[in-house]
UniProtKB/TrEMBL annotation:
Swiss-Prot/TrEMBL catalytic activity: ATP + H2O = ADP + phosphate + H(+); Couples ATP hydrolysis with the unwinding of duplex DNA by translocating in the 3'-5' direction
Gene Ontology MF terms: 3'-5' DNA helicase activity; ATP binding; ATP hydrolysis activity; DNA binding
EC number: 5.6.2.4
Descriptive protein name: DNA 3'-5' helicase
SUPFAM superfamilies for this protein: P-loop containing nucleoside triphosphate hydrolases
Residue ranges of every copy of the UvrD-like helicase ATP-binding domain listed in the record: 27-334
Binding site for ATP: 48-55
Keywords: ATP-binding, DNA-binding, Helicase, Hydrolase, Isomerase, Nucleotide-binding
Keyword Cell membrane: no
UniProt superkingdom: Bacteria
Source organism of this protein record: Microbacterium protaetiae
InterPro entries, alphabetized: DExx_box_DNA_helicase_dom_sf, DNA_helicase_UvrD-like_C, DNA_helicase_UvrD/REP, P-loop_NTPase, UvrD-like_ATP-bd
DNA-binding found in the keyword field: yes
Length: 806
DNA sequence: TGCCCCACCTTTTTT
DNA sequence: AGGTGGGGCA
């Protein structure tokens, strides 16, 4: 996080004569890639298809700029989508140019903005110790305000309010601007304006930014203070943006601000919040910085949160004279996989045609499988992983993708039973766990005492007998005295609360003060690198937080203690990597780093993740599960403009992650909301040319019950009886193509409105005869509770179960 | 104030 | 189905 603060040098940077110092950087690049590396001009758009080596091109381009002495490291700003991508890029540039990589800014939009805002916060009413609200924090705040303003009476749910605020900010429309254009004759709209305004005031009061503000306020800063903007325009001469198709309007505007020409005359020497800026006495007017963007509109999957695909499609208009380079040769996947991807994505009508190709050959066919249930589907995946593993493929080379996080459950259950090591990427995040948020709130209370939310969060954790009534008393006292909530804790005796409460409050105040002394030593002293970890331990121990967990009889609290230990370990690790890192640096990193970023220890385990998380990754083998209507494409996308296309791109992203083997799997029934429902094969399956898929079990097979047995049933057999002599991969290939020529079968097994009542006798293809105990549910979701003579009690979905009435 | 039970809502994706 | 939050009661 620290910056080498290289003095800014502008002007002639001479080129070495003779052979280019970057010759070796061009080795092994195809002509298009080479052009993308060597082109020099104000604007360059690299349209990079999946797997076309864009990271290579980007890193080599940066290295080339450095090697040729066309730029100092400090003049380079490279923006990536995730911290992980940033780390990888830095590493690869370092491999190419060694120490010269230091001083470059390679980071996400959010991290870059935090660095700028910390330096400039005082320019506009914040202090540099501001904290960052993640979506959970924002949600909590919105929720409180919705309640306070009784906005729910107008049909405004916290989730809706939060999303509207976020969308608005992504369009650079702040609370004031929104209020100006709002339709104030609509009472619900008026209410929203009120809440939006209150939300923003609360953030300001807490000296905090939410995710969207990090970008939006930086843009505001640049526009309101051109002199500040000029500092960064002079500094960053080469700006590179990865995943440009996923930028939203605010991010677009930020880049636009940074790539304006510097028109103002250089002002007097100017120090920007710690960054020493040396400006030559006669700073010349400067050309705009050169801008390189890389993107693929076919991989735009974040429109739902404001990403604007037009940023890439209209790049040439925004930057006249821009050069466009197309990378279509794919170095990742087999031709079969690419053909499937090309075929599916070509169904999106509003795109420029682009066809990925490779010279590595056709490769294996795509394998299709249809399970009876999601457990059955998961069992197939587990069995295949087992077979591939025995064939020599490492677990780390295999990944399972799904559309929604909830789908991971069934997979996990089966994987645990099959003893397959796996790791869930993303998912329920470590940093969203209650105990971690508590611990971070303690740290925040120390780092940014203005953050009332943080103090409120921890004031009664562990239980100190400080309830709502007392909290409000403190809040009122703070307001009356004109001090912060945090400072009010120091005057417990003046609050007019009972002696027991006074003691509790004073103790908490003392703990916070002690930790503060450890982590934020008074001026002059420098906190040792371990200060954060030590301070955190002080907070957790002396507040009684750990003791309370230890004393608890809730078995989950054991795990919570371990999580806290892990957080302390993270703090130590942070200290190792950032010897000068402060408490604020730590909190910043934690707020901006997602779990998806720590993919390092995924070796040796199968990776499970959502399709969104999968973007930018690649695996030898990919299982794309739940390829069903209403799931992929997701039901909710149907109603949104551009939704179905975006889902198709999501499918495309998933398919193109696979290097050699691709599995497309689905289930005929899926339990959702605790209810079983019938699933239909996804339309995307129809869009894959039939000859590319080898169906081990097609939807047609399942519906006609071709004598195969449910794997879920296999799985329930005792271990010894498992048919190890019949591993799935060695089974005769299905000839089901004619039964399911890649068309959604017209004859799904359908019992129609079969009437069943308790007492009826039925016959099931697998379970034999039984008697109906009860029927629950309605319509197509009616479920029969059946006691089978041999197989015991089962619940069956009447509409599709292979049963007949006797 | 704290605990327990019930109702409800979830499940789209994330920096 | 499972988790969370709110409300009511001790």
């Amino acid at each position: 996080m620290t910056d080498a603060s290289t003095p800014l040098v502008v002007g002639d940077v001479s080129r070495a004569a003779g052979s280019r110092p970057d010759d070796d950087l061009l080795q092994g690049l195809n002509p298009q890639q080479r052009e993308a590396v060597v082109y020099r001009g104000n604007a360059l758009l690299i349209v990079a298809g999946a797997g076309s080596g864009k990271t290579r091109v980007l890193t080599h381009r940066i290295a080339s700029l450095l090697r040729n002495k066309e730029a100092w490291p400090s003049q380079i700003l490279a923006i990536t989508f995730t911290n992980k991508a940033a780390g990888e890029m830095r590493e690869r540039v370092e491999q190419l140019v060694g120490q010269h990589a230091q001083g470059m800014w390679i980071s996400t939009f959010h991290s870059a903005c935090v660095r700028i805002l910390r330096r400039e916060a005082e320019q506009f009413g914040f202090t540099k110790s501001f904290t960052i609200y993640d979506s959970g924090d924002s949600r909590a705040l919105v929720k409180r305000l919705v309640k306070e303003y009784e906005a729910d009476a107008f049909g405004l749910t916290p989730a809706a309010v939060q999303s509207r605020i976020s969308k608005s900010k992504n369009e650079l429309v702040d609370a004031e601007a929104y209020a100006r254009d709002a339709n104030m004759s609509d009472p619900a709209e008026r209410k929203f304006v009120e809440v939006f305004g209150a939300y923003q005031r609360a953030l300001q009061k807490a000296n905090a930014f939410d995710f969207d503000d990090l970008i939006g306020q930086t843009v505001y800063l640049f526009r309101a203070f051109p002199r500040v903007a000029d500092v960064y325009r002079r500094r960053f001469r080469h700006i590179l943006v990865d995943e440009y198709q996923d930028t939203n309007h605010a991010q677009y505007a930020l880049i636009h601000e940074l790539t304006r020409p510097v028109v103002g005359k250089a002002a007097e020497p100017y120090s920007a919040g710690g960054m020493m800026i040396f400006e030559p006495e006669h700073a010349p007017e400067l050309e705009p910085a050169s801008l390189t963007v890389v993107g693929d509109s076919d991989q735009s999957i974040y429109a739902f949160r404001g990403a604007d695909i037009r940023n890439i499609t209209e790049f040439e208009r925004d930057y006249p004279g821009a050069k466009v380079v197309l990378l279509e040769q794919n170095y990742r996947s087999t031709q079969n996989i690419l053909s499937a991807a090309n075929a599916v994505i070509s169904h999106n009508f509003d795109r420029k045609d682009k066809r990925l190709w490779t010279d590595v050959g056709e490769g294996e066919k795509i394998v299709g499988y249809t399970g009876y249930s999601q457990h059955d589907e998961a069992q197939f995946v587990a069995d295949e992983i087992d077979v591939l593993r025995r064939g020599g493929m490492a677990y780390g080379q295999m990944a399972v993708f799904y559309r929604t996080n909830s789908q991971s459950r069934a997979l996990e259950e089966i994987f645990i039973r099959a003893a397959i090591p796996y790791k869930i990427m993303g998912g329920t995040r470590f940093y969203e766990r209650a105990e971690i948020k508590d611990a971070l709130a303690y740290l925040t209370a120390v780092a940014n005492p203005a953050d009332e939310m943080a103090v409120r969060r921890i004031i009664n954790r562990p239980k100190r007998g400080i309830g709502d009534v007392t909290v409000e008393t403190i809040a009122r006292y703070a307001a009356d005295e004109g001090i912060t909530f945090r400072d009010a804790l120091a005057n417990a005796s003046a609050l007019g609360v009972g002696p027991k409460l006074q003691t509790s409050i004073t103790r908490l105040d003392a703990v916070l003060a002690e930790a503060s002394a450890v982590m934020l030593p008074s001026s002059g002293e420098i906190a040792p690198p371990t200060a954060v970890a030590e301070g955190l331990s002080v907070l957790l121990d002396k507040s009684g937080y750990r003791d309370a967990l230890r004393a608890s009889r809730d078995p989950q609290d054991e795990a919570r203690l371990e999580n806290l230990d892990e957080l302390v370990a993270v703090a130590r690790e942070f200290a190792r990597n950032n010897p000068d890192g402060t408490l604020l640096d730590f909190l910043t990193e934690v707020a901006l780093v997602s779990d998806a970023d720590d993919l390092e220890d995924a070796s040796g385990t199968v990776s499970l993740m959502t399709l969104h998380t999968a973007k930018g990754l690649e695996f030898e083998t990919v299982f794309l599960t739940g390829v069903e209507e209403d799931l992929l494409p997701h039901r909710i996308s149907a109603g949104e403009p551009g939704g179905p296309s975006e889902e198709r791109r999501l499918f495309y992203v998933g398919v193109t992650r696979a290097r050699q083997r691709l599995y497309l799997t689905l289930a005929m029934t899926r339990a959702q909301f605790g209810e079983v429902s019938v699933a239909m094969p996804s339309r995307f399956l129809q869009e894959v040319p039939a000859e590319l898929i080898d169906w081990r079990q097609s939807p047609g097979d399942v519906n006609s019950r071709g004598g195969t047995q449910s794997r879920a049933l296999n799985a329930r057999r005792p271990w010894g009886q498992r048919r190890t002599d019949d591993p799935p991969a060695l089974r005769p290939k299905s000839t089901a193509m004619e039964k399911f020529p890649n068309r959604i079968p017209a004859k799904v097994r359908d019992n129609g409105d079969m009437e069943l009542a308790s007492g009826d006798r039925i016959r099931h293809e697998d379970f034999g005869d039984g008697i109906v105990d009860a029927v629950t549910g309605e319509g197509p979701k009616r479920v029969a509770h059946v006691r089978f003579d041999k197989a015991g009690a089962k619940k069956l979905l009447i509409k599709i179960a292979p049963i007949e009435k006797l």
